[in-house]
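Translate structure to sequence.
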């Protein structure tokens, strides 16, 4: 016991004390009103108080135990357990949803609970006794009904509902006073005492169920279905066993009573005259022999003394049938002859040999057209010890069937409360120890996986997982700790990997800039060309993303790869001779063809780099931009004459950035074009030279473009 209490924290102990206090309040108030003779119950006051502080399951416990104890001095209370449980569930829901914050809802709650308890109460009373229980209700309903049975039950129902509204109103007001006496912090801790993890709000529970989808719902449904099935099987099994036990007991009692009556009746029969009665053969009712008439009268008196006795008869059993000597049945007395031969009753045929041998006959319980009967036959012996006849006593046990109906109703009403208690316990335990912890672990683990790309989010998800604080004390808790440790370890590993990746990326970016600088330093016209085109590429890519264009393509990785590899778009110029690259005048046709080869050379350089590092990664987009940034939307570009969306998106973005920087930069053989005129040229190229969507977002980003121009013009 000491170890058990040691595992229960302070909040749980307080929760238990509140339940015990609620039970005491119910019993004391119910005993008080019963002792004083008030037409009230007040047996749910403690239940409502407990449900408001501890939730539905605590209220159910209070209701069940209270009704069991109250039934000691008010027996019918046992069968109204279900009504008390419904009150607990209703109050718990009312408090959980914070409906009490609006005052008008409290009177509405009193009305609803009063109607439910009053309506069910009158129904249960009629099922149990066939009549209302409260004397005041009965008297008032009789006065209003004026001998009409239908009107009587109508008025009784209305009066009982009104009485319950008054009763539940007083109970709720008392519960509210006690509820507000408890500090808010204590209320919150008591309400959450059942959680085996960080308590979840109603909104969090809804989100958990929604995020868990079919997994959480199916787990909860399976457990709920299992609990319901077990409770139903238990209820049905207990009912059937109880009915069978009761039926067997009633049958044994009936056979014992029939045997006692048969033994008593046998003492009145003079066996030495039975043969003479048979020989005379008169009608039973007209038999003139005094001894016969006296015996028949005594048998009839015995039958009248026992209301359940259907008939008493004396018969002589022979191989070809039975000869009836006495029979208390009125029809037999006026229509049968003494000693008349009749076929043996079918129920006795299996024991015919015992009859003929004069042995003991087993009592029988059988079903006739009039209902169930218990039949006993006792042998009648002569003075010499020979069995000369049998006395048969038949008892009706039809009343047992009516009792069984009442018994079933009592079982259903009485067990309904225990059924809800078992169901509530199963759902509570499965919810707090399985569904919610597992669902929370799954949700936080999924969040952890989804945030794997962001170290800050990853660390935050690890903190959330640790704050979950699952403490079920079983394998679920062990699973939770294992996942928490694994998540923390993964986060640290990802931090190390990211550090190494960042270092590698910085080195790669340095190499890219170095390569781009090598090319730029050879081209006398390309001052800050790499930096500016990279800035324009970023502006266009982000603009496309905001507009929702090419959503499937514009992933975070793609955008990063494009911006990172943008400086390499002219890497192929490293193979162009200086006299062509820096020629002050216009290139000849042959020189221009050589200049155009910087695209194919750039593609070859990038493909060699890709094969060297065993993976395309960001160099794939560097290859695309180097190879195709001079392709045109209308297919008139070079080197392959690609058109439209066949041109890689990164190259289409670079085409706009590259041309804009060329026409806005001063060169050996041309002056810079004003930016507004340059924008006009870009606009006119939409749909012919450039991707219209790239042009659209570029023109919508004029402020950012001006900032880039100003930044590098000042250098």
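Result:
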């Amino acid at each position: 016991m000491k170890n058990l209490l040691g595992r229960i924290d302070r909040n749980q102990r307080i929760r238990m004390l509140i339940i015990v206090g609620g039970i005491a309040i119910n019993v004391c108030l119910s005993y008080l009103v019963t002792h004083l003779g008030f037409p009230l119950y007040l047996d749910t006051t403690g239940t409502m108080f407990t449900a408001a502080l501890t939730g539905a399951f605590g209220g159910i416990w209070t209701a069940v135990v209270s009704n069991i104890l109250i039934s000691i001095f008010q027996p019918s209370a046992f069968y109204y357990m279900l009504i008390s449980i419904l009150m607990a569930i209703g109050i718990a829901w009312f408090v959980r949803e914070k409906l009490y914050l609006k005052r008008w809802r409290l009177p509405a709650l009193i009305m609803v609970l009063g109607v439910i308890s009053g309506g069910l109460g009158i129904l249960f009373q009629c099922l149990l006794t066939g009549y209302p229980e409260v004397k005041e209700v009965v008297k008032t309903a009789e006065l209003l009904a004026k001998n009409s049975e239908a009107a009587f039950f109508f008025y009784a129902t209305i009066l009982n509902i009104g009485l319950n509204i008054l009763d539940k109103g007083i109970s709720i007001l008392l519960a509210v006073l006690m509820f507000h006496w408890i500090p808010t912090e204590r209320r919150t801790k008591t309400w959450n005492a059942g959680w085996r993890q960080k308590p979840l709000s109603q909104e969090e529970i809804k989100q958990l169920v929604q995020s868990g989808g079919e997994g959480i719902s199916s787990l909860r449904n399976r457990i709920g279905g299992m609990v319901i099935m077990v409770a139903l099987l238990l209820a049905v099994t207990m009912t059937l066993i109880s009915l069978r036990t009761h039926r067997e007991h009633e049958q044994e009692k009936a056979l014992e009573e029939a045997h006692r009556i048969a033994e008593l009746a046998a003492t009145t029969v003079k066996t030495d005259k039975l043969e003479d009665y048979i020989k005379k053969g008169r009608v039973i009712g007209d038999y003139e022999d005094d001894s016969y008439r006296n015996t028949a009268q005594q048998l009839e008196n015995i039958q009248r003394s026992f209301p359940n006795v259907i008939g008493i008869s004396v018969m002589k059993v022979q191989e070809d049938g039975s000869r009836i000597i006495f029979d208390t049945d009125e029809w037999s007395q006026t229509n049968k002859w003494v000693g008349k031969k009749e076929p043996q009753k079918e129920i006795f045929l299996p024991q015919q040999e015992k009859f003929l041998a004069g042995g003991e006959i087993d009592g029988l319980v059988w079903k006739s057209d009039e209902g169930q009967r218990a039949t006993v036959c006792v042998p009648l012996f002569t003075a010499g010890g020979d069995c000369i006849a049998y006395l048969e006593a038949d008892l009706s046990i039809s009343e047992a069937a009516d009792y069984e109906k009442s018994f079933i109703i009592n079982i259903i009403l009485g067990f309904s409360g225990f059924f809800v208690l078992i169901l509530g316990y199963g759902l509570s335990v499965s919810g707090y120890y399985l569904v919610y912890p597992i669902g929370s672990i799954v949700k936080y683990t999924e969040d952890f996986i989804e945030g794997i790309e962001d170290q800050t989010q990853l660390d935050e998800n690890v903190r959330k997982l640790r704050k979950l604080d699952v403490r079920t004390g079983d394998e679920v808790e062990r699973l939770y700790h294992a996942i928490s440790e694994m998540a923390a370890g993964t986060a640290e590993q990802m931090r190390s990997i990211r550090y190494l990746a960042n270092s590698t990326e910085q080195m790669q970016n340095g190499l890219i800039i170095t390569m781009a600088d090598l090319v730029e330093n050879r081209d006398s016209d390309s001052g800050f060309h790499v930096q500016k085109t990279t800035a324009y590429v970023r502006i266009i890519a982000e603009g496309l993303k905001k507009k929702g264009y090419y959503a499937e393509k514009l992933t975070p990785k793609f955008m990063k790869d494009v911006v990172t590899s943008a400086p390499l778009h002219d890497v192929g110029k490293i193979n162009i001779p200086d006299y062509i690259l820096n020629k002050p005048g216009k290139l000849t046709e042959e020189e221009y063809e050589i200049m155009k080869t910087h695209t194919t050379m750039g593609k070859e350089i990038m493909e060699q780099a890709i094969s060297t590092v065993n993976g395309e990664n960001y160099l794939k987009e560097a290859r695309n931009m180097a190879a195709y940034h001079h392709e045109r939307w209308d297919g008139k570009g070079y080197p392959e004459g690609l058109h439209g969306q066949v041109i890689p998106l990164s190259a289409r973005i670079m085409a706009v950035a590259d041309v804009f920087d060329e026409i806005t930069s001063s060169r050996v053989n041309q002056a810079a074009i004003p930016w507004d005129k340059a924008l006009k040229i870009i606009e006119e190229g939409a749909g012919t030279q450039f991707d219209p969507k790239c042009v659209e977002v570029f023109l919508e980003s004029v402020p950012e473009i001006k900032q880039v121009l100003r930044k590098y013009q000042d250098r």
